[in-house]
Specification:
The chain has nine helices and six strands; from the N terminus they run βαααααβαβαβαββα. With about 230 residues, it is of the alpha/beta class. A six-stranded parallel beta sheet has the order 3-2-1-4-5-6, with helices on both faces. Strand 2, helix 6 and strand 3 form a beta-alpha-beta unit.
Amino acid sequence: MKTYTLAFDIYGTLIDTSGVSVAVRQYVKDNTDDFVQLWRSKQLEYSFRKGLMGKYEDFGVCTAQALDYCCLAFNILLSAQEKERLMLEYKVLPKFEEVESALSALKDAGHRLFAFSNGSNEALYHLLDHAGIYDTFEKVISMKDIAMFKPHPSGYQHFLDKAGAEVQQAFLISSNPFDIIGAASYGMHTAWVRRSKNSIFDPWGIQPNYVLSSLLELQAVLAGHG
């Protein structure tokens, strides 16, 4: 069976960013879902904007500034300590239910597994270690190394360089359409994990090679690829 180099996005793909909802709810009450969704949306937007401006800042800065925006948008006054507590929740977010078993099966099948994220190495270590999956990966590769954010093309080349892989043998696995489109545009194979039935893939004329409802489907997909 052929084996591949697999780049796993972290936030939203392996790790459930909505896990912050429990902590948010005590401050936001009935608007929790909208608050969490806007926080995530602004987090990504700010990373895109900083990348375009050539004004890189750590992904954690984008997350903190997005939280500030949400507090203004929902007219919620949080103390510095309360904001810090919510930020700390990003270090202990839960993994999706099937992640550990799916990764173990892929590793046992001989595939090379890498974590690949906009987050810093320090943040990713804490997050993946807390989730119990850090040691599953051959290496954790951060975009902070090159002071850029996905989906900039340099990021996918950075991954290939760090993984020592050829683009034809590499897969990007992500729940984020922008990431899938970025990797596909660079020539990588892609698998979109559609974490919600309400998720919409951007209609840009670029499609993922595969659409998964669960990471447990990935091993069969790779076995039949090519």
